[in-house]
Amino acid sequence: MNTPQKESAESQTIPSASILPPPTASAQVATLTPSEASSLSRALLPVRNALESLGRNRKATIGVCIVAIFLILAIFGPFFVQADPNAFSPDLLQEPSATHWLGTTQTGQDVFLQVLVGTRVSILWGFATGLFVTVLSVLVGLVAGYMGGIVDDALTLLVNVFLVLPGFPLAVVLAAYVPIKGPFTVAMVIALTSWAYQARVLRAQTLTMRHRDFVEAARSSGESTWRIIFFEILPNEVAIVASGFVGTAIYVILAAAGLEFLGLGDSNVVDWGTMFYWAQNNDALLLGAWWWYVAPGLCIALLGAGLALINFGIDEIANPNLRSIRGFKRMLAQIYPLGIKTAQDA
Q1: φ and ψ at 339, to 5 degrees?
Q2: Which residue, 204, 281, 191, 292, is CA-closest to 240?
Q3: pTM of the prediction?
Q4: What percent of the chain is predicted at pLDDT more than 70?
Q5: Domain coordinates of the chain in residue numbers?
Q6: What's the pLDDT score for residue 194?
Q7: What pairs with residue 110 in β-bridges?
Q8: What is the pLDDT of residues 131-179, one digit of tens each?
Q9: CA torsion angle 52 58 59 63 (round to 10)
């Protein structure tokens, strides 16, 4: 029989943890369950591996350095130079010198300032349009490839319609008849005519992956359709998506410069394309003002080369057969067995 003293002693020995308040809702939301953490880590693993492989690729490293220089100039360059690139000066059509590093135009405008300001405009709209095209292509391609049925038929029909349309000529026609001129109009016209090819590539890749074991396992465990598409299938196509983005960015920058050179953009906005436009209108080639058109042309060529090197690096990571000349010839020999001999066969 327990005495009152024993009962009071037992009541005093109750652990303090048993009377702690329950965890708040914010603490519960902030923590991930083990299954969610494992799913997120598994989804990011292909991206992490691709970035590590990209860092070890020489072509990709050189391309990243070139693009990084242009990005630094685009972001910080105009902050250090406060002068107006459209300002006139009495130094008309001067060759490159210590005063004007890249010379001047026929109206005395500094070419270096125009290149510096135009770098920001061209890269901003080029990369933004490339990102928009890539996102649109990913959505259409992955949804069509995974869903199948009438959804796939409808989206494939839409893709095929845009594939048969001539891209740049259609962009010229659309840009000519759109009443509002400017970089945004040029970007939207290019985006409208350049998304279908990448969407078709992603659809074909998704068709080969939707019945893989890991996709079937995710489907059997009750995962939602969108979670399977973006957390199971998309990470395994990161190389194709990255390559498509880089290729689209190259095309957008070149196409935008071409449209603005034809006078289909806003000639008052300073970028590489409008520099070509004014150089051509003022007969820079006939006057011998080579610096007027060489400067923007060299920028476009260097940026395109940097993006192309990144694209080559991504292709080599996605396809190891391209990492050497012998491997490339061996791959071609498998495709065309009678046409090309490898060094080993010779």
Answers
A1: -100, -30
A2: 204
A3: 0.75
A4: 77
A5: 41-84+100-335
A6: 87
A7: 104
A8: 999 999 999 999 999 998 999 999 999 999 999 888 788 888 888 888 8
A9: 70
CA 186 to CA 183: how far, in whole Å? 5
Q: Residue holding tokens 């799913």?
A: 39
Q: Which single residue is written with the structure tokens 């299938």? A: 233
Per CATH, the number for 41-84+100-335 is 1.10.3720.10
List, run by run, the mean pLDDT of 10-residue segments along the chain (346 residues). Answer: 49 46 47 59 64 76 93 87 82 87 90 92 91 94 94 94 86 83 84 90 93 90 90 89 90 89 87 92 89 93 93 80 58 50 44
